[in-house]
Write a structure and sequence with these properties.
The chain is mostly helical and 76 residues long. It has a domain of 37 residues. Helices cover 39% and strands 0% of the residues. The longest helix has 12 residues.
Length: 76
């Protein structure tokens, strides 16, 4: 009996955000990534990502919004 080793590192909750991380957050948000995916990519908590985005005026995609659809014109 023992504990399973988690494949993901623990979120960095207490660490300050660097300028590079803020730029990465803005870049991923511009690509319409969801907050949960951004948090996983950056090793932060979802609440931390949402809070930092709100404090810096970065708009995030709503988790209830449908996935972006790429429309293309069909040739006849």
């Amino acid at each position: 009996m023992g504990y399973d080793v988690s494949p993901r590192p623990a979120p960095r909750q207490a660490e300050k955000w660097s300028d590079q991380e803020l730029e990465q957050l803005a870049r991923l948000a511009a690509k319409r990534w969801r907050a949960k995916a951004i948090a996983a990519e950056m090793g932060r908590t979802e609440a931390g990502v949402r809070g930092k985005a709100a404090s810096h005026g970065i708009a995030l995609v709503s988790d209830r919004a449908p996935a972006p659809i790429t429309l293309r014109r069909l040739s006849a």
